Hints:
Elements: H1 9-20, E1 36-40, E2 43-46, E3 51-54, H2 57-60, H3 69-81, H4 92-104, E4 109-115, H5 118-133, E5 137-141, H6 150-155, E6 172-175, H7 195-207, E7 212-218, H8 233-244, E8 247-251, E9 275-278, E10 290-295, H9 296-301, H10 317-332, H11 335-356, E11 360-366, E12 369-377, E13 382-383, H12 395-406, E14 409-410, E15 413-414, E16 417-420, H13 428-446
Parallel strand pairs: 3-14, 5-6, 5-7, 7-8, 8-9
Antiparallel strand pairs: 1-2, 2-3, 4-10, 9-10, 11-12, 12-13, 12-16, 15-16
Amino acid sequence: MAVSSPITETQEIIQDNLDYTLFSWSKQKGINPIAVQRAEGVYLYDYDGKRYLDFSSGLMNVNIGHGHPRVADAVYRQMQEVSYVTPSCVTRARGELGRKLAEITPGNLQKTLFTTDGASAIENAIKLARIYTGRHKIIARYRAFHGASYGSMTAGGDPRKLAADSQQVPNIIHVEDPYCYRCPWDKKIESCNRECVQHIERIIDFEGPQNIAAVLMEGESGTSGCIKYPPDYLKKVRALCDKHGILLIADEVMSGFGRTGKWFASELHGIVPDMIATAKGITAGYIPLGALIVTDKIAEHFNDRMLYLGLTYSAHPVACAAGLEVMKIYEDEHLIENAAEMGRYIDRQVAELKTKHPCIGDFRNTGLLGCIELVKNRETKEPMAPYNATADQMAVMNQVAAKIKQLGVYAFVRWNYVFIAPPLSITRGQIDEGLTIISEALTLADAHTNP
């Protein structure tokens, strides 16, 4: 009679998670997660001792790297003093973090409503825009992700919302993206007349500018494929907003806090939005926290008017203490400067990879927020997997993702995109390690090209 082998610690941990928890954005069977025991710097370690290079900073949020002791110390000190107070009370950490955000944001963005995450920052931005302007419509892009709560999901164009969008939040108007690699107007950048901006202007006219409260734009595109704005795109959108008295909301949830080589991606485009909705890098993912930062003009509007916004965990003392320490780490360790430098290095290295791999159609990157777009043919640009691909259409990309993981890199792979967004603390040697593994995995995709 065969004797079954005893279950390992790793198997027990994974099985408990599979049996008693639900996994987001996934079928619940056939999942093969990494059982992470610890994490340090740019690496994750499982219970069997295998090391993975975290090439996506978790979900593009662990900007300072994993396991930084200064954040743990700051959280411990705050919890010894006070772990929670209602948002009607104040703490030192709340005020100091608010002051720091006012210092690092562009222009006159001076006051912050602290939220719990990026989605709640977007939800409150939409509500505040409507309250402040007295208008009701919001213009947003199809290829954008703004969060998974109902309002933020409606504002985004991500197809994952389609399963639950029969009752969308009303008065969200979507526009085409300035996707230069796959231009909806079939233009080359050198012959482009910014039809993408003219398109928005027509939509404003059709919807009635007097009805539009805000235009919502990512500071830099993220999980929709790191779609690069034409150089003056956001400046022209800003001008449209100013012309019609429309607010401009910058979603800097992913692109904020050094990810693009600047504190905020808005700086790269030379604009000052009316609101910045952000999260992720504000605490580098160590504790959930989001923020809606608004101009002094918007803040002053509510000096003698009720601000109908609020959350139980707004300005949570422990989260604010973590955020404040993370801000200091960005500066003390020169992480934003490193993001810019390492981003340029990645650009050069991926350009070399493109000469070796016919499957690489395009690489779009800003600082440490980038993705490789894989195609079957560079001339036709046929994607290795289509937009909103079904399971059977993802066969090749799933092989690529599995190989990357097997070889010891944790990377975000979606549709025909392989994302490169490591912690801001990464070194050249670690980048080389990750790109060498990705290069090996891309040979699987090369076999499916038809040049």
